[in-house]
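Design a sequence for this backbone.
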């Protein structure tokens, strides 16, 4: 997924690893999406049997499931996510609010020693780590109080993404088995994300670290150091390039070919300079790296030159708005200026049904989006560009209500 407008709540609860369904040795049984599952306790019994095969002890299973129940509200939240929409400028107004910037600068000062050590060890800027902390839990204030086992068991029992969440649940029991946390203290979001920086259990097993040397990878308590270090380790393990930014806001020259504003078009920064791309102060960008041009709100919105670390941050959350939020919040915490480019504020976000309609109309017009799923990903963006070019519009790939209305009028 590239740019998909979703709610701020969905961004905040996502955490790393929601797109990562693999865990060595765990292959939960798949159920048809339409399967009618009515016996939650029966499902729990079946899961316990599978967990025993993974060498989860009876004591840990009993402690973990002691107060677990099926949570209908969690299912409602999970199934209704697609209906919540927010434009990128509305999202950024919250994600990078003055309060969040001020609190981020204070958090950076309060934890300067630990964050300096984390940056030195993992090569990830302390401002980036702090920004993720700010977006995921408001610097530890809103870590979530939902029992993780109940949340994951509910979502695994439900048929929509049962395989994915059973793998996460099994990982949660492996964490309990290792003794890193007690079941009663394993709490987080309704989606199963945990701690200061909202790690999913599989990501915890694969990337969490014991930075303070107390023998536990403690991401749940009031001390954030292990969570912050684990976040830096996660980004390092996914290819963070030290010394390269996430992105730079730029201005595009008159006559710029918007077909080039494509994630798949990577060029040396020097080549973009030759085309007349400049930073917002009018200077050439001098970073020695490959970059792409990103227009999250089309030709009428702010433009960014993005680098390899943008894709690394997408491993934490795949939405472009979230990545821009993290990157821009980090820049603001470091003393940078607000985004200077404007936004097409006359637009609103497309609803889920409108995104489906957009894909259907593009496909009917001969620009196949391949999937009709309501997600504005690279295939849909390419279809939008193709249609825009065919009718002589600016080919910026931006899916907006105006574009949908134009498609309706053309049919």
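Sequence:
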């Amino acid at each position: 997924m590239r740019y998909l407008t979703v709610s701020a709540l969905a961004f905040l609860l996502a955490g790393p690893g929601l797109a990562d369904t693999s865990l060595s040795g765990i292959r939960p049984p798949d159920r048809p999406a339409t399967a009618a599952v009515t016996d939650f306790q029966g499902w729990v019994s079946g899961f316990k049997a599978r967990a025993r095969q993974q060498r989860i002890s009876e004591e840990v299973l009993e402690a973990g499931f002691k107060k677990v129940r099926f949570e209908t509200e969690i299912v409602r939240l999970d199934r209704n996510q697609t209906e919540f929409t927010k434009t990128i400028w509305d999202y950024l107004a919250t994600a990078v609010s003055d309060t969040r910037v001020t609190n981020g600068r204070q958090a950076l000062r309060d934890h300067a020693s630990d964050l300096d050590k984390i940056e030195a060890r993992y090569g990830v800027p302390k401002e980036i780590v702090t920004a993720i902390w700010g977006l995921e839990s408001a610097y530890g204030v809103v870590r979530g109080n939902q029992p993780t086992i109940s949340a994951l068991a509910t979502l695994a029992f439900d048929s929509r993404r049962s395989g994915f969440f059973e793998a996460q649940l099994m990982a949660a029991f492996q964490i309990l088995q290792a003794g890193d946390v007690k079941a009663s203290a394993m709490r987080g979001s309704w989606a199963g994300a945990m701690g200061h920086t909202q790690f999913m259990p599989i990501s915890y097993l694969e990337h969490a670290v014991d930075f303070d040397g107390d023998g536990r990878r403690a991401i749940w308590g009031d001390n954030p150091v292990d969570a912050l270090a684990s976040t830096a380790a996660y980004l390092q393990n996914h290819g963070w390039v030290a010394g390269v930014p996430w992105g730079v806001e730029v201005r595009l020259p008159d006559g710029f070919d918007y077909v080039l504003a494509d994630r798949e078009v990577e060029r040396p920064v020097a080549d973009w300079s030759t085309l007349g791309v400049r930073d917002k102060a009018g200077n050439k960008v001098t970073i020695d790296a490959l970059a792409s041009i990103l227009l999250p709100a089309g030709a009428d919105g702010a433009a960014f030159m993005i680098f390899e670390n943008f894709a690394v941050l997408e491993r934490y959350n795949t939405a472009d708005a979230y990545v821009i939020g993290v990157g821009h919040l980090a820049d603001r915490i470091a003393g940078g200026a607000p985004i200077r480019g404007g936004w097409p504020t006359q637009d609103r976000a497309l609803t889920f049904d409108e995104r489906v309609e957009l894909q259907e109309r593009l496909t009917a017009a001969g620009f196949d989006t391949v999937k009709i799923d309501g997600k504005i990903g690279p295939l849909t963006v390419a279809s939008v560009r193709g249609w825009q070019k065919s009718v002589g519009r600016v080919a910026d790939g931006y899916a907006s209500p105006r574009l949908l209305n134009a498609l309706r009028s053309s049919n």
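The first helix runs from residue 8 to 14.
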